[in-house]
Amino acid sequence: MTQCPDVLVVGAGVTGLTTAVCLAEQGLPVLVRAAEAPRDTTSAVALAVLMGPSLAPPEEADSWPPIETTMRWHREGVAEFTALAGRPGTGVSVMPGRWASHREGEDIAWARDTPGYRPCTPEEHAGFAAAFWMSAPVVDMRAYLDHLAARLAAAGGVLEIARVASLAEAAEQAPVVVNCTGAEARHLADDPEVHAVRGQHVVVENPGLDSYFFQFSRAKAMTMFMPHGDRLVLGGNAGRDDWSREPDPVQTEEIIARCAAVEPRIAAARVLGVEVGFRASRSAIRLAEERLGDTRVVHNYGHSGAAVAFSWPCARAVARQVLQPARV
């Protein structure tokens, strides 16, 4: 049995590990407990590119956090990952890529001052109405999660693979519990506002690409691919309230076809695997504290498609909250 920590973080995806790293590097004894190892979480499946319009909620203008806060979080996230790109072993690199939209008259004013921006040539549009080049931090999530786990261990934190049945159970293990369970918070935190948004990606041998392609859209089917060395990750889709972990062969073929329409070399690439994960969608990100008996429970979930981008600013917000004296 692991010695009682000061903080128990539930969840070992990018949100949980980043939060645990922030707390452990503040000198707190931290235990991360999760049903899945980091490489088995939804975070490992993420097609993480850090730039552009946020795909996180809220979609409603009066939801929390306000747009000014999410834009600040996004800037902080981009700066953090840009800095990490200079460090070996993080899985982060700054890479050129094409951004595209099918919407006529798409507002891309936000992109014009970004690094490497230039309009696409007619041939580079690949059938999209709006398209341009831009450099951005791209994250190989498998390598990055390994980096976070190593950083946690170096700070004295402990990672334990074991299921937490309830927050009440977790509250018996530590004076502070941080809930970073993503879509599983629907069950663990009894939060009916949380919806799973299923995503499926196809991993193929990289046919020689050194740039990414990203369709910025809230559509159910999108076209995107990210090279990570000899692997190329293809996406994607968004299935609301779909909890199936089984890969859909029809979706696999559709994803490959969409990506090959942009880059024909993908059509002949050997398929290495198909990955499925659940984004945690919610009308508002839940970054809040409650009490269960004498235990402080801090929630940090509901980031939807922006979990990677928001991982550091939200983790630091949690660390500030935890380090505050408990309110009686």
UniProtKB/TrEMBL annotation:
SUPFAM superfamilies: FAD-linked reductases, C-terminal domain, Nucleotide-binding domain. One of its GO terms (molecular function) is oxidoreductase activity. Its EC number is 1.4.3.3. It catalyses: a D-alpha-amino acid + O2 + H2O = a 2-oxocarboxylate + H2O2 + NH4(+). Its cofactor is FAD. This is D-amino-acid oxidase. Residues 6-320 form the FAD dependent oxidoreductase domain. Gene3D superfamilies: D-Amino Acid Oxidase, subunit A, domain 2 (3.30.9.10), NAD(P)-binding Rossmann-like Domain (3.40.50.720). Signal peptide: none annotated. Keywords: FAD, Flavoprotein, Oxidoreductase. Belongs to the DAMOX/DASOX family. It comes from the Bacteria.
